[in-house]
Amino acid sequence: GENVEQHPSTLSVQEGDSAVIKCTYSDSASNYFPWYKQELGKGPQLIIDIRSNVGEKKDQRIAVTLNKTAKHFSLHITETQPEDSAVYFCAASHSGGYQKVTFGIGTKLQVIP
Amino acid sequence: ETGVTQTPRHLVMGMTNKKSLKCEQHLGHNAMYWYKQSAKKPLELMFVYSLEERVENNSVPSRFSPECPNSSHLFLHLHTLQPEDSALYLCASSQDVGGGALNEQFFGPGTRLTVL
């Protein structure tokens, strides 16, 4: 089955700096890679996703990159703000029949004002 | 109500109690999920229902019993739990279970369960 590894487990950055979270996956058939943000007291929420036919996707201050050959993908947050502080999860799944979503362990991001 | 709602938000129970967690989705989705979230562990998928039929039971102990009476409601019945079952239990729904973007999970806020 799929295995998703995520690092770092915790990350502290100064407000305004960039933050990068990296994930690797094991199943070469995976073709959909969502990122979720979980704020305190809430469930995870999708913030951005990328499919395997795209190498990079950007949405305002967040971007994801995907390297299919190396089987790794990354989340980049620029100009971080205190409200970016949360736990971020990467995940992987693929199409075709029933395919569960496999999550990484999560990265706790703290943005220091 | 919008999205995915869960009740109760907090639950404290003894090992001999029986309780139930409730989840309701208002998104018109066909699939619903139970996850267990423990500190320093990945989200653990427990059960998946598609159109009210269970499609995955991820080796979950029988002291957890799911019920899906219709595509909008999902329950998790709990009995004779152990202290190590204390965790945040998250419900989610998705449009379908077909993989890819159809699997985009919409999560509820979770029930924080403490077993004494």
Question: Mind sketching the topology for me?
Answer:
The complex is a heterodimer of chains A (113) and B (116).
Chain A: E1 4-7, E2 10-14, E3 19-25, E4 32-38, E5 45-51, E6 56-59, E7 62-67, E8 72-77, E9 86-92, E10 102-103, E11 107-112
Parallel strand pairs in A: 2-11
Antiparallel strand pairs in A: 1-3, 3-8, 4-5, 4-9, 6-7, 7-8, 9-10, 9-11
Chain B: E1 4-7, E2 10-13, E3 18-25, E4 31-37, E5 44-50, E6 53-57, E7 64-70, E8 73-79, E9 87-94, E10 106-107, E11 111-115
Parallel strand pairs in B: 2-11
Antiparallel strand pairs in B: 1-3, 3-8, 4-5, 4-9, 5-6, 7-8, 9-10, 9-11
How would you describe what is shown here?
- The complex is a heterodimer of chains A (113) and B (116).
- Chain A is mainly beta.
- Chain A has no helices and 11 strands.
- In chain A, β4 (32-38) and β5 form a beta hairpin.
- Chain B is 0% helix and 55% strand.
- Chain B has no helices and 11 strands.
- In chain B, a hairpin with a 2-residue loop joins β7 and β8 (73-79).
- Chain B is globular, with a radius of gyration of 13 Å.
Q: Which short descriptors sum up this protein?
A:
heterodimer, A: mainly beta, 6-stranded mixed beta sheet, 5-stranded antiparallel beta sheet, globular, B: 116 residues, 7-stranded mixed beta sheet, 4-stranded antiparallel beta sheet, 11 strands
The percentage of residues in β strands of chain A lies in over 45%
Report how far apart the termini of chain A are: 41 Å
Strands of chain A, total number = 11
State the major sheet of chain B.
Answer: 7 strands, mixed
Helices and strands of chain A, in N-to-C order? Answer: EEEEEEEEEEE
The count of helical stretches of chain B stands at 0
**Which regions of chain B contain 5 or more consecutive residues with pLDDT less than 50?**
none
Summarize the helix and strand pattern of chain B as letters.
EEEEEEEEEEE
